[in-house]
Amino acid sequence: MRRLARGWAALGGVLVLAGCAPRVTLDPPVATPPADFSGTAMPGPGGPVTIRQNEWPNLTWWRIFEDPQLESLILEALARNNTLTIAVQQVEIARALVRESRAGLLPQATLAPTVAWSRISNNGPVLRETRGQLLDAYALPVTLSYEFDFWNKNRLALESAQAFAAAGEQDWRTLYIEIVSSVATTYLNIATTLAELRITEQTLAVFVDNLKFIQRQYDVGVASALDLQRAKAQVSTTQAILPDLERQAQQFQHQLAVLLGRNPGEAVGVRPLDATRAPAELPGGVPSGLLQRRPDIRAEQDRLRATAARVGVARALFFPDFTLNLSAGAASISTGSLFLPGSFAMDFLASAAVPLFRGGALEANFDANVAAYRQEVAVYQQTVLIALRETADAVSQVEELTTERDRLRQAVADQDGSYQLANRAYRAGVSSYLDVLDAERTLLVAQLALAAVEGQRLIAMISLYKSLGGGWDASDGQPVPVSSR
Fold first, then answer.
1. Do residues 163 and 302 touch, judged by C-beta distance below 8 A?
2. Which of 24, 256, 267, 408 is the most buried (most CB within 10 A)?
3. How many other β-carbons are positioned within 10 Å of the β-carbon of residue 324?
């Protein structure tokens, strides 16, 4: 009874010491979409924009552009992009760490065969009859050990590893969307630049024809030297635009090749800008579900769970560890008797390890994990704000660029009519060539602006789909590919 009382007293002392573990309240993050994000509308420059509920972007949202070449390039990038491959390996590392953490909840078994040989000294402080003897020892024990997870330290470590692995998968999905968007954006940048190049070349051909006409008029004394010089200057100025457009197209080509996992020198085919289609209306979405939809937000939610679990692990380190060790097997002085029944041996040990003094290391570790959680709360809230801003910006851009595109179309049509009138009037000798030059320059500027705005509008559509999460929702089980072993 006295030994039992001493045991209970020791256990009570251990629990009293464990009661000194610090406590902290982990406040959850607060992230609420604005009222405009009602689930049926998104904020736009002219007021809330109605959303069609059944048109969430899906995993192949890029098909809205009806461009098979773009679709082919996106699929190639997803198969060959090196950055995406790196992300897959990072996910596999996180999954392996989960399996490693899960092992902490299970008993550990070790087989440790030993062979020992020794000779007793003739001159040592030993019994006379043992001097000079040769001793052999053979053992074949199996050791089982198990740590009781009373304070959920190992379970919380597993939970943290699982949450970090889940965050890694969401990071892969974020990168997936980023690569698709980058390929589509670069593709449309190439198409836009080539459209501007084609417009400039066509306009240059008109300028050259006009120069030839004026040259003939000048040769017969009808046109003035000033008109001829103006026509030459217009041709030279337009020719100077072409190298810059060609350089831009080449740079975008190199960028797209790298996204596809190709060498930058390889040419990539691109369809004309006017062959790429996009829906006239805004794509649908449910912005009130944005927080459950975007993988970057879901990744931060997983990291919040992981850091919260690590706070629990840090607190559990203040409590004692209870471990059971059982060693059983055969032990003998000769191999011939090692497997006889009388060679069976067994040891049993129950132990508790109580942290008494660590120089403040446990407290510092706990404080660091609490600070990491609060940091992650701020990161999560900032990620949500950025997501809401990106969505609102994308909606505004699509609307404003659509309006600008429609107005520029009318401006090009009007300016083309003005140019035709000025050109006919000049050839008829009614007006000066200065009117033709002004009309030509204005028409070229309007045509280039229309091509640029149309490309920007399509790119803004890509940004809108990207800001809405590309194609994932809470039930969307797009798996992270696993590399072959």
1. yes
2. 256
3. 14
Pairing of strands 41-42, 49-50: antiparallel
- The per-residue pLDDT for range 375-420, each reduced to its tens digit, is 999 999 999 888 888 888 888 888 888 889 999 999 999 988 988 8
Residues 6+ apart with CB under 8 A from 353: 320, 321, 323
**Residue 186 is encoded by which pair of tokens?**
């670069």
421: how many CB neighbours lie within 10 A of its CB?
A: 15
Domain residue spans of the chain: 20-106+151-318+359-467, 112-148+321-354
Using CA atoms, how far apart are residues 410 and 339, in angstroms rounded to an integer? 99
CA atoms within 13 A on the CB side of 390: 20
| Chain-centroid distance, C-alpha 252 | 22
Strands (E), 246-359: 321-332, 344-353
3-state helix, strand, coil in the chain (%, to 5): 65, 10, 25
Quote the pLDDT of residue 59: 52
Lowest mean pLDDT among 4-18, 239-253, 260-274, 462-476: 4-18
Task: Name which of 199, 202, 211 is nearest 235 in CA terms.
Answer: 211
| CA separation for the pair 9, 7 (Å, rounded) | 5
Distance CA 236, CA 359 (A): 79
Tokens 């769970």 label which residue?
A: 305
Cα separation of 138 and 118, whole Å? 12
Spatial CB neighbours of 440, under 8 Å, sequence gap ≥ 6: 203, 206, 207, 210, 234, 419
Quick one: which of 29, 1, 12 has its CA closest to 320? Answer: 12
Q: Strands, DSSP E only, in 184-296?
A: none
Quote the pLDDT of residue 442: 87
Distance CA 96, CA 232 (A): 70
Q: Characterize the bridge pairing of strands 321-332 and 344-353.
A: antiparallel
Six-digit token pair at 475?
């039930």
Superfamily of chain region 112-148+321-354: Outer membrane efflux proteins (OEP) (2.20.200.10)
Q: 20-106+151-318+359-467 adopts what CATH topology?
A: Outer membrane efflux proteins (OEP) (1.20.1600)
What is the average pLDDT across 337-344?
Answer: 80
* 42: phi then psi, degrees, rounded to nearest 5: -125, 150
Quick one: how far is CA 423 from the chain centroid?
A: 55
Can you name the residues that pair with 111 across neighbouring β-strands? 142
Q: Are 150 and 307 in contact (CB under 8 A)?
A: no
Query: Whose CA is closest to 184, among 469, 465, 459?
Result: 459
3-state secondary structure 189-236: HHHHHHHHHHHHHHHHHHHHHHHHHHHHHHHCCCCCHHHHHHHHHHHH
